[in-house]
């Protein structure tokens, strides 16, 4: 049976890097490795330009019906002045919320070939392999009240609300513990229980889920500020880090940068497993943004986008072998010395988006 | 006229490092450099053990009446189970809130002698000099509702509230712009306006204060996740970073760790200037914590605590020359090769808390 892939290239370099993924999908279909049916939609500024919204209802329906979504990037200075509810990011946030993609998996791995591109010392990051499990549909991102009100004296008052409930924390904790079992068996749970009530509940629920269901996995609680510090000081102490939406946003970006190769890192946003079909909604996207400064120049690094396809093969289609092969192909072209501008050392020769994509496909 | 210094050593290594500061204060008094009257109180776990609260009303009164407070550190596993409202951190949070210490200044500087202690490459951090200006009395730390409620089905729901008003943002922005003028004239304002309404208001107010009062200072807006990334990638691009309470907590800890010398970094928490007297309430504290693991061993690094006294001389007592001299004394002992355990390279000889304190005093 064929599988539905819905592509949302978005803005900036999104379409350029998505093109390389399409080439790989086409090849997999023609080689008989898979039967992917692809469709494409608009999101972010591209959707705004066409429909004055950050994602159309039609595309939301297609996203809902897809077996997996591949998402490029959204945003850019062109849309800085659009109404707040239609800003490019709103399309992404709506996809996460409406599809209930609560589990955001952000691996931060350091490719040996690229360890020198990191601002950290080689010995601190070489072999780094962290998985950040970020809660993605709760917290400050979606809690209400969320508003700006004008007070009597003309001043304004802005409010955002951090909300977490027991089941929200339970389900993300389970994802983290399950993933840790396939890795080094150690979960770090990060919050600010010394200041936030949501942190108190977070710690309490993670502790209970651990004791009741995952006592064989090692659990360490770490305050979010200390976690940011320890990521800089000695990132290799970490295995899986589970944290809330806002801390996850910041900690995962810091972790990504440790590897020296932001353009390299994919992510997966997963929904709950359907009890009947065993399938789950899922969106895959690079960790990097739309990079308006290099858009249209053919120099963007497609590896994070290709790595996102590899994650889709693994988590949405159970194609573990193909996922491993595609990731090995990425590692191989890097070991062979191929570099896009973002990961090239001073003076090193660089290739463009298309050449990098083609090389990965060839090595696949 | 004599000046009142109120000392709150707190828990863990707090008393040990405060002892070194006391020696410097005594020497300044006896050398006729200053006329400091000191008094001492309890905070955190130490206060809980004595009075079952995180700070007593008597000590709060003394804190209110002081010209400056020197604060050590609070917390430790001993008090993990005390009632939430009496946890050690509550004493610090109450001091900040009741004294309206809204401006938290956290310098992250990299001493040349210590550049190799950083996990980052020497060239990335050598000469680093960032000042983080963190809003300290608003946001998620103090907004209400702040509660955990039990729902009908037995699940719990935790809420924290991020609140900012126009005047709160205005006053912290002014502090940042004023400080930038004495430095490299560049303020980075960090928030998440793409997700949070408080970020939208933050950006709007900072932009207006800049245009109306500080157009000659360079202003760059940067999303908090990107700021965390850029701190890791290229920290030397920053001068002053102004941000909210929670982002400031995390970003300043990450920045502190870049320097490779957490035990080295002081901070100042300042209130508003009294229109009549020109004085302001102020609390000075190291950025590091109470370090229960090394407590009582005489090995803690007193430099962050001594640096906090230097900040007090500068910001509370206008003793700029003495502040500079004390900071130069710190730099000198480091350049001379003196190292406590936390900043020693492998195999390097180390000195204890008392020797380090005495060496700084001698170089002062
Ligand atoms: C684009 C933005 C809304 C988003 C977020 O804050 O979650 C991004 O930073 C991310 O981490 O995916
Ligand atoms: C001790 C704790 C309450 C405090 C905070 O979160 O502000 C600390 O981390 C700090 O940064 O001063």
TrEMBL record, chains A, B:
<dbReference type="Pfam" id="PF00180">
    <property type="entry name" value="Iso_dh"/>
</dbReference>
<keyword id="KW-0432">Leucine biosynthesis</keyword>
<keyword id="KW-0464">Manganese</keyword>
<dbReference type="GO" id="GO:0051287">
    <property type="term" value="F:NAD binding"/>
</dbReference>
<keyword id="KW-0560">Oxidoreductase</keyword>
<keyword id="KW-0479">Metal-binding</keyword>
<feature type="binding site">
    <location>
        <begin position="76"/>
        <end position="89"/>
    </location>
    <ligand>
        <name>NAD(+)</name>
    </ligand>
</feature>
<feature type="binding site">
    <location>
        <begin position="289"/>
        <end position="301"/>
    </location>
    <ligand>
        <name>NAD(+)</name>
    </ligand>
</feature>
<feature type="binding site">
    <location>
        <position position="96"/>
    </location>
    <ligand>
        <name>substrate</name>
    </ligand>
</feature>
<feature type="binding site">
    <location>
        <position position="225"/>
    </location>
    <ligand>
        <name>substrate</name>
    </ligand>
</feature>
<feature type="binding site">
    <location>
        <position position="106"/>
    </location>
    <ligand>
        <name>substrate</name>
    </ligand>
</feature>
<keyword id="KW-0100">Branched-chain amino acid biosynthesis</keyword>
<dbReference type="GO" id="GO:0005829">
    <property type="term" value="C:cytosol"/>
</dbReference>
<feature type="domain" description="Isopropylmalate dehydrogenase-like">
    <location>
        <begin position="4"/>
        <end position="360"/>
    </location>
</feature>
<feature type="binding site">
    <location>
        <position position="134"/>
    </location>
    <ligand>
        <name>substrate</name>
    </ligand>
</feature>
<protein>
    <recommendedName>
        <fullName>3-isopropylmalate dehydrogenase</fullName>
        <ecNumber>1.1.1.85</ecNumber>
    </recommendedName>
</protein>
<keyword id="KW-0963">Cytoplasm</keyword>
<dbReference type="InterPro" id="IPR004429">
    <property type="entry name" value="Isopropylmalate_DH"/>
</dbReference>
<feature type="site" description="Important for catalysis">
    <location>
        <position position="192"/>
    </location>
</feature>
<keyword id="KW-0520">NAD</keyword>
<comment type="pathway">
    <text>Amino-acid biosynthesis; L-leucine biosynthesis; L-leucine from 3-methyl-2-oxobutanoate: step 3/4.</text>
</comment>
<dbReference type="GO" id="GO:0000287">
    <property type="term" value="F:magnesium ion binding"/>
</dbReference>
<feature type="site" description="Important for catalysis">
    <location>
        <position position="141"/>
    </location>
</feature>
<feature type="binding site">
    <location>
        <position position="225"/>
    </location>
    <ligand>
        <name>Mg(2+)</name>
    </ligand>
</feature>
<comment type="function">
    <text>Catalyzes the oxidation of 3-carboxy-2-hydroxy-4-methylpentanoate (3-isopropylmalate) to 3-carboxy-4-methyl-2-oxopentanoate. The product decarboxylates to 4-methyl-2 oxopentanoate.</text>
</comment>
<keyword id="KW-0028">Amino-acid biosynthesis</keyword>
<comment type="similarity">
    <text>Belongs to the isocitrate and isopropylmalate dehydrogenases family. LeuB type 1 subfamily.</text>
</comment>
<feature type="binding site">
    <location>
        <position position="253"/>
    </location>
    <ligand>
        <name>Mg(2+)</name>
    </ligand>
</feature>
<comment type="subunit">
    <text>Homodimer.</text>
</comment>
<keyword id="KW-0460">Magnesium</keyword>
<dbReference type="GO" id="GO:0003862">
    <property type="term" value="F:3-isopropylmalate dehydrogenase activity"/>
</dbReference>
<dbReference type="InterPro" id="IPR024084">
    <property type="entry name" value="IsoPropMal-DH-like_dom"/>
</dbReference>
<feature type="binding site">
    <location>
        <position position="249"/>
    </location>
    <ligand>
        <name>Mg(2+)</name>
    </ligand>
</feature>
<dbReference type="GO" id="GO:0009098">
    <property type="term" value="P:L-leucine biosynthetic process"/>
</dbReference>
<dbReference type="InterPro" id="IPR019818">
    <property type="entry name" value="IsoCit/isopropylmalate_DH_CS"/>
</dbReference>
């Amino acid at each position: 049976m064929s599988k539905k892939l819905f592509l949302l290239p978005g803005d900036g370099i999104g379409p350029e890097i998505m093109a390389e993924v399409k080439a790989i999908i086409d090849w997999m279909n023609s080689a008989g490795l898979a039967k992917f049916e692809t469709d494409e939609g608009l999101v972010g500024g591209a959707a705004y330009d066409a429909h004055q919204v950050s994602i159309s209802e039609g595309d939301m329906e297609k996203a809902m019906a897809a077996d997996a979504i591949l998402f490029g990037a959204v945003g850019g200075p062109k849309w800085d002045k659009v109404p707040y509810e239609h800003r490019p990011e709103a399309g992404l946030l709506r996809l996460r919320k409406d599809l209930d993609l609560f589990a955001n998996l952000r691996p931060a791995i350091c490719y040996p070939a690229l360890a020198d591109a990191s601002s950290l010392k080689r010995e601190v990051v070489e072999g780094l392999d962290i998985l950040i499990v970020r809660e993605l549909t709760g917290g400050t991102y979606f809690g209400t009240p969320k508003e700006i009100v004008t007070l009597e004296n003309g001043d304004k008052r802005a409010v955002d609300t951090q909300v977490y409930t027991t089941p929200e924390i339970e389900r993300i904790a389970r994802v983290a513990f399950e993933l840790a079992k396939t890795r080094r068996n150690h979960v770090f749970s990060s919050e600010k229980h010394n200041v936030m009530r949501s942190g108190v509940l977070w710690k309490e629920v993670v502790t209970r889920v651990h004791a009741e269901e995952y006592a064989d996995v090692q659990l360490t609680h770490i305050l979010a500020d200390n976690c940011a510090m320890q990521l800089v000081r000695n990132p290799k102490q970490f295995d899986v880090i589970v944290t809330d939406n806002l801390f996850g946003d910041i900690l995962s970006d810091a972790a990504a940068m440790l590897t020296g190769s932001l353009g390299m890192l994919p992510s997966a946003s997963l929904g709950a497993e359907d009890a009947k079909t065993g399938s789950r909604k899922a969106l895959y996207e690079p960790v990097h943004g739309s990079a308006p400064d290099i858009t249209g120049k053919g120099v963007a690094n497609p590896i994070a986008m290709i790595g996102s396809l590899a994650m889709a093969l693994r988590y949405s289609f159970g194609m573990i072998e193909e996922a491993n092969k595609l990731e090995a192909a990425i590692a191989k072209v890097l070991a062979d010395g191929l570099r896009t501008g973002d990961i090239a050392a001073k003076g090193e020769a660089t290739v463009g988006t298309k050449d990098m994509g083609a090389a990965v496909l060839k090595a696949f």
